[in-house]
Structure formats: structure tokens, C-alpha cells
Design a protein that fits this description.
This protein is α/β, with parallel strands linked by helices. The protein contains 18 helices and 25 strands.
Amino acid sequence: MMNGRMMDFPLTLTHLMERARRFFPETEVVSRAPDGSLHRHTWAQVYGRTAKLAHALTRLGVEPGERVATLAWNHHRHLEAYFAAPMMGAVVHTLNLRLHPNEIGYIARHAEDAIVLVDRSLLPLFEQFAASVPTIRHVVVMPDSGPAPEGRTDYEALLAPERDDFEWPKLDENAAAQICYTSGTTGNPKGVVYSHRSSVLHALAACLADSIGVSMHDTVLPVVPMFHANAWGLPHACAAAGARVVFPGPKLDPESLLDLMASERVTCAAGVPTIWLGILALLDQNPKKWDLSRLRQMVIGGSAAPASMIDGFQERHGLTVTHAWGMTETNPLGTIARVKPSIERAGDKGKTLQVRASQGFPVPFVETRHCDDTGKILPWDGKTMGELEVRGPWVAASYMGDEGQDRWAKDGWFKTGDVVTIDPEGYVRITDRSKDVIKSGGEWISSVALENLLMAHPAVLEAAVFAGRHPRWDERPIAAIVVKKGMAVTEAELAAHLESRVSKIWMPDAYVFLEQIPRTSTGKFLKTRLRETYGGMLEKAAEGR
């Protein structure tokens, strides 16, 4: 065998940050504070502050491989931690601030966090679990809402005496860089450990034109939290490309986000569907209030986005939605719904919308297949449903502590838990999470398909379909509905809307009207809560007859 003669150049996050400083020193990194004020830095300043943080962490005794945790919103200080800890050989661990304090405490103990960088506005949350984590040696308060309280270490004071350059160590590209925990598995949250190599490759994939396409011409708004799958890798991609970044802080309501997108001339924004449902509703009410002419795409992932929302943005506001799929275990980018040239040339708007509303096909180096319960690989016919499995250089090979080993097939593919079809062109369409699919009298009913159809009704803002227990059919669909402000709709009208679109067995047996559908810590619909609260209503109705 003849070997290649290329340099053995390690793929590390250090290179991304040094590139941003050297080639894009004046490009802005903008952060919005809780009071709404904007703080402006440049990539050169972020680099200098990252070096200062690395010196400060060294002074606090952080050793290679130790965990530096963050409990923070999206802002420039969080970005500094994203790079400083991994570049000095430590590991950054993002704590999910939307979890219950007991769960955050479990995660911090499991990861053996040594240092915690916490926003001042989140100190009350931190104090609810801090005593349960014996490995924490130092707590540093990031002054997002004012200086650190007396007796606490202030982040800015800690950085002030340090130098703005650092002799970064030579790192193994396979060394751990970051840890994110996923709550999408059974039992306790599982730790996913990203390497420098996986994060760099993922960043490059996000910069590809037929992927997210992050470039030096972009102003990127990561609405997705930096504690959720590393903000989908966007901070790393922006450093690699030299893109301008706008961090929204904790103000994530539709009006605040629209104000920020318009004032900062954002070109690419990314978040989960529930964020964009609210934004679309507000745009429909005030179509001329915000100038979004620079916005080339909104990347939506985390759960399936309804086709009606994708079409609504395009047809009513001229805004493009790019649908993507991924998980914490995939760093997270796995597939993206780009329309192939052959489909564009055909000019079939219905087909084009169908493709754009799918989860798309894999980005380079990610491979997909779907299997039945026995592990048999299923055909790509667009009809046969099975569990999606993936593999690739930024897909997890195991969890921290080797927990949850049943999530990997015997040949190493990762079992995602998503029930999908894959068509002959490779487009993946999620029909459900395996835990959410409704099994009624031997028939599988897709909650996602029903939700998309219900949200196509002009009066429906949100819809979540879940399994209700049934004495005869085992499970039957129940639909939780949030009606748009100032509008009304009846159960009969919703049933009439569905009748011509789905088979009789798919029709919901009941509707529940809510002010808001409960959400998970990452903004997805919390169907477990709906099942707990309303799952027995069909049994009770049957008993009453």
C-alpha cells in the first residue's frame, strides 16, 4: 500500500479562533444583555478575552481534561468559554438552564464539573443545586445583569489582570472539547463528549453552500441556546467563516427577536419550530413593521416544522425556511432539506414544499438508514416506516460512562429513536419519535403528520397530537390545540378540516384547547406531560357511557 504524503495537521478549535482573529479582526460579535442593551466586540477582542480567560482558568488550577461548566444565556462571555477551555486542553460543559435544579445537579455531578461560569441573572438557579455538586472548586459570576454579589468572583475582575495572548498547547484532535447532555433518552440524561476533530469537521460542514452555508458575508443569530447541542455548532462555524454574530441573550420573545433581526440586519437565524410559530403569527399581524430584507434563511430544527409554517413564511413574507435535522448525539447537524436541481426544474410547487418540509438528505460524511424492530434494513421507498440510524465522524460512538449501550446497533450505527420514511432520492421524513408514535389497533398513526395538518388550519397556532389510552384500540390520538389570538375554532371545524386529508382511523378522538402547550427544556412540545394530564380522558369517557 502506498501512503499519502500530506501533513499530519490536527483539527482543533484553536485553529478556528486564530483564523477569526487573523483574517476577520474587525468583524463584530454583538451581545444583547437582559436589559436590552447591546455590547459590541470584534473577533480580535473576543480572541484576546479568550486568552485572558485561559490564563485565569490556569490560575484557578484547571488541569487538562477537567470540566469547566457554563450556566449561561447566549452572549460573548459564553462564546469565550466555548473556546478558552477546550483550547487550553480542558473541556467545556454547557448546563441546560431550563432543566429542574435537581436534574442540573445530577448532570454537574455526573460530569464532575470543577469550575462553573454562571450568569449573575442565573445565580438563584445555581444556588438551588450548587451544594449537591462536591467537585465544584470555584464559581465565577458573569455580570450579565450587574456586577457579582459581594463574596463572589466577578468574571471581569478575574480577567482584568491577565494577558490577551496565550501559548496554546498542541492538542490531540481526538481529545475531548465539549460535553452536552441529552434528555431525549430513557432514564437519566446521558453525556455526549465531542472531540476537537468532530467539532471542527462539523463546523466545516455547516459552512458548505448546500448545508447551512455560513460565510463571511453573514450575520448569524443563534436563537438556539448555546446549552442545546452547542447552539447547533454555529459559534464554531461563525469563527471558521469569519461571520458576524448576534447573540440574543435571554430575550427570546417574538417581538424582541424581530426587533433584533431588523436592527442588526441578520442574514441567517436558527431555532426550534415553536420560536418561529410565534414569529410568523406576529409577522402576520404586522407584516410591514420589520425590515427583514437581509434575512436569507431561517434554519429550523429540533423537531419537525409544519409545512404550513414553511409555506406561510415564503408566500406571505418572502422569507425562506431551511429545515434541518439533528440530535445532541450528532453534534447536531445530520440532514438538511435542500431542494435538488431536478426537483426545482420540474416546477411542481407541491413537490417542492413537500421536500422543504422533510428533514432532507444527509450532509457530507453523515450516512443514514432505517431499520425495523429486528434490525432489518428497510427500503428507500418513501412509504416503509422504521427507526432512523446514522453514522459519521461527528456522531457519538458511546455516552460518557458507557451508559445506554443499547442505543447502538451491533455494527456501530446510532439508533436515533426517530421513526421515519426515506424516499428513493434519500429525503428523510420523520413520522414520529418512537416513544410518541400512536399504535391504534395494530395501525401506526403519525402524530407529526396530524400536527402539520392541524397547524395548516388558519385559526390554529400550535397543535400537539399524543396518545390517549383506549379500552378497545389500546391507543387513540388526542389533539392539544392553541388557537391564534382573536380567532376561534370548534372541534367540528377541525374534524371537517381533517376528514378529506386522512383516513378515518387517523381522526383524533378528542381535542383539548390550551393557552399554551407545555414544552421541554429545549422548546419542543412536551408530550409526556400531555399524556400524563389527558391520556386517560378516553377511558373515563368510555366508563361514563
